[in-house]
Every structure is written in C-alpha cells, then in structure tokens.
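Summary for the steering committee. The consortium agreed at its last meeting that each partner would contribute one worked example illustrating the joint modelling workflow. Our contribution is presented below. We chose a case with several input lines so that the handling of multiple components could be demonstrated. No manual editing was applied between input and output; the record is shown as generated.
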Amino acid sequence: MLKMTHITKVFRTDVVETHALRDFSLHVAEGEFVTVTGPSGCGKTTFLNIAGLLETASGGQYLLDGEDVSALNDYQRARMRNQKIGFIFQSFNLMPDLNLFDNVDVPLRYRGVKAAERKERVERALDAVGLLSRKKHLPAQLSGGQQQRVAIARALVGEPRFLLADEPTGNLDSNTAEGVMELLHEINNNGTTIIMVTHDVVLASRSARNIQILDGRIIDDRRAQQKAA
Amino acid sequence: MFFYYVRLALLSYRRNPVLSSLMVLAVAVGIGAYMVIFTMNYYMGGDPIPQKSDQLHHIQFDYGNPDIPNFEPPPQLTWIDATAMLEQTTAYPRTATSKFVAIIEPPGNEVRPFFVNGRGNSADFFSMFDVPFQYGSGWDRSADVNRDLVVVLSNELNERLFGGRDSTGETLVMHGMNFTVTGVMDRWQPAPKFYDVNNGSFDPVEEAYIPWELIISQELNRSGSTNCWQAPEGTGLQAFLNAECAWIQFWVELPDADARSDYSMLVDNYVAEQRSLGRMRMPVEQRLFNVNEWMIEQEVHPDETRILGALAGMLLAVCLLNTVGLLLSKFLGKAGEIGVRQALGAHRGSLFIQHLIEAGVIGAIGGVLGIGVAALGLEGIKVLIGSLLITEWMRLDLTVMALTIALAIVSTIIAGLYPIWRACNINPSVHLKSQ
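What follows is the complete predicted structure of the assembly.
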C-alpha cells in the first residue's frame, strides 16, 4: 500500500540545513492501522505530509499503491490525493462559511461527481458519523468532537483506501477523543488503511502497529503481538 | 464548477465584507471615472452616421494665399465654387449648406417674434443625412431651382409655433416672408454635428431649414464662420459673393469607389480649370473626405478629452494597484483554506480558476457600482459644460454599461493575477498544521 525506501527530507534556508527525515524506510500494508509517535520536531508531520503528497521528499523512493509518486506533476498528485487519500487534521480544518453538507461535498466536487450522486454520498457519510440531521449547520454551531466527526465524514466521502490523521484527538477532551478513536477503528475494520500521528501513548498502544520516530529516523516499529510479548 | 466558484466568491465576500467592499469601491471609482471620459470620447469621437459615413464626402479646395505664411486651407467653399459644384454634379445627391439667423413672427399674438438659427441647404440634404421626419418631408430639387419659399422645422420649433401638431402646408412668417412648411423633423442630434463642424461641432441642430439659394436671393443674415484670403473687389453683396471668401459647406453622396473616382476626377478637372484662371494656388493633399476622414482632418475630437482620458486612465491604474494590494491581503489570508482544498484534491489550476472567478465577481460588483459613479460623473460634466455645448448625447447606453462591467471584470482579473499566483503557490502543509 505505502512503501517508503531511504526517504530523506531536508529543509534549507540561507544559513541552516535541517534534516527532517533521514534514511526513512517504511512499508505499510493494506488494512493496517499504524500509529506514529515521537517527541515534537522529530519528523512525524513531515512524514505524514510526504505520505499525503503535500510535500515532496528530498531523496529516496516513495511508492503509493505501487506507483512511484516522485515523478508525478501537481495535477497528478492532486488527483491521487483526491482519489486515494483522506486527511484528518488536529484542528479539523473545516471551512467556516460552508455548512456541513458543503464541507463534506468538497472532495467530490474536485472529482467531478454528478450532483445527485454527490448528495447521496455526502448524506451517507454524514449519517455514518451521526450528523446527517445537522447537515445545514455551520461548523461553528458544532462542538469540537462533532466538528472532528464532520472532518472524518469529509475524509471518507471519497472512499479513500488510505487515511492520514494528524493528531485527530489533540483538540478533544478524553471522552470525545474516545468516541473519535472508536470511529477510526470501525473505519479501519471496514478495510481502510490508517496512519495516525499522535502524542498520546495510550491511544498509540491500542493500535495494531506503532512506529516511534526520533530525529527523523524510525527507532522502533512494533506490532501488537510483539507489544503483547 | 463555474457557479460553485461564484458561490464561493460571494461567501468569501461575506466573510471579509470590509476588505471586499474596499476593493469594490476602488474598482468602482477607477472604472466609473474612466467610463465618464470614455463615454465623452465614445460619442465625441464616434461615427455620427455609421450607415453611410463612407459614402458622404466633403470637398476641400486648394484655397489660400501662398504669400501668407502658415496659411491653412479653409475647410469651406466660396459661393462661386459651391454654385459651380451644385450645377456640375447633379448626377449625385449633393448639398451646399450654411447657417443663417432670422426673425420668426408667430401666428396670433400670444407669442412675440423671436430669432431662430436656420440652415440653408439643398433639397438632397435630408435624404443624404437620413434626417428623420415626424410629419411631411423636405422639398424637391425644383424648389431649389425655383427658390420656393419652403421650410422644414425642427420638432422643438414646431412645438413652439404649432403646439406640436402636423403643420405641413401651414404658413410661417420668417424674415418678413411667407414660407410654407413642407415637413417637421423628428428628434435629430448627430454628435458630432458632422455636416458643419466649422460652427460648433457639438452645437444643437438648427431650427429651420430653407433652400440654400434663398440666403442670397432673399438676403438673409448669414451666420457662421467666414474665411477670406483676398479682399473683395468692390462693395456690396455681389462683390462678397465673387470674393475669395469661404463660408459654405459642401457635401456629396458617392455610393461606391467608382463614384468616388469619377467625382474625384471631376473635382481635379475643376481645380485645374480654376488654376488656369489664376485661382487655387495652394495645393492640398486631399480634396474628398468621407465623414470620418473629415472629422479627423478637422480635429473635431477635442485635445482636452485626450488629456482627461489619460488622467482617468492613471486614476484607474492607481485604483487597480490598490486592488492588487487588497487582493493580495485577502488571498494570502485564505492560505489555510487553500491548503485544505489542496489536501482534498484541488490542483493549482483549479485553485487559480476559483480565485480568478472571485476576482471577477469583485470586478463585476465594482462595475455595477461603477455605472452609478459614471452616471453621477456625467451629470457633473453636464453641469460643468452644459452651457458650452449640447450634452444630451452624453448618456450611459446599454453598450457603455456592458463595457463598464466588462472592463471592471477584466481589470480586476488582471489586478488579481499576481495575488492569485502567490496564493496558489503556498506550501499547504505549513497552513494545515497552523490553521
């Protein structure tokens, strides 16, 4: 599903060169739920941005669904993001002027889906997160947990095979975070591959696979049975 | 996606109403000011008779005294040449024409006698210049030859004298003589008044029209410019008529290139003949001018409008520069949304189009407001120069209004290119984390 080999990412300014990822290799199989942990500034988000085709690697090879993404142009990368990847962000990133329906509708608009089909899929996605009845509401009228559920509906409406979540519970209280995590596990059980960056070691311990990053390198890659052992 | 983007643009306007309204105001002021001057230039420099401007021709002869330094050949004809041209060119519609002033004695005692500005012209004048008639018509060529006392009235004069009713066949006392009304013109105000640019290019049309020969035979008071380059030999009317004094406009209608060629040859022959008699000693480059050539030759378009046009263009540029800054601020403020849209599958091209449409919507709203600014500006201009020339033609018609909106949209889109380019090239990952 996702295969990174010897990926490096270097940010350069006139005076400083920062290595965000060094010799980073990772293989994530279809259907896995992988959590990524590590201290602030270790390269978690950079990894997620490269995985989500929002940034390009400075070196190495990245195969997504068997396709080498390094040669793709902006249009092709956008199309791949739209069709194969769903994003969930810590601060939800809903568009404040659009109601819930229109927020969830955005990925389908860029895919060119016809209006009737969009309506059916958006309503199904909102129903799945329990917010169909509030589809005409604006994000500001919802709680943080509800907003994150809308963001999850938006990520899922295009039926991506791959979900990238950047600290999705970081802005939520523990009860709400628990609900969001249950939803993500349910999505994963339905076959969607999930990579989730988190600071929360408790949440990370509940995933089937946890990767720890330090100074741009993977220092630990454990699966559930290893952890249990 | 077009309507989706328009909706997003309107939502974006609502999100930043102050910033958006400032942009709309900048566009409206710039476009409005520009359109005021454009409207003036559009009408002043426009084709006053587009359906036949390439068929109607004015004659210029090789007039002047080569001994007088910097003498410009006068644009009008002498009486000798105008009468010769009338006699020699009967195959084509043609008219000699000049202005006069006369006193009209209204019927009854309610209205006191008053002066009118009149025009003497040949019978063909009305058909040549497509003069519209409310009642009746002009006269025929026999009336010119017979010097019949016939008159065509403007609809304003007909209103004043006859209450606006059909006055054809009625008698009008002018210059102490009884004229018979043959027709009443409908509203007619060519701008510029191309058939006589020597006497006020934007003056109102005359109120009464009579056969041109009557100005001489009945000794009416001529008015308008007269240019002499040789003193009359003797005194009196006949001496003046025989003198090298130009005061008559002469137009001929030539339907095609062959007719123009034939007529040109006739004029050249006439000039050669006159030269052999010692006249027309200052050669001119061109003797036949169609309407638009004549407007350019006579510099009908005032220089002031060009200067104002340049000033309005500069004001528009300043307003658009302001708009560039405001758009930059607005679009870079949307970096977070742009990042989210990229994450959800928007490529740079689609974001570019979305924001072009947003700039276009701002331009369109600015354009609509600009029409109001332009309308106010034109009213102001009318107040300022209304006493100097007729301004009723200065109005915002549908063409000008559509042009205003189109110019506003195009200008704002051009102003938005750099801000949009900057906004579409942000690194989305930076803004996704910080939103």
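The longest strand of chain B covers residues 94-105. Chain B has a mean pLDDT of 89.
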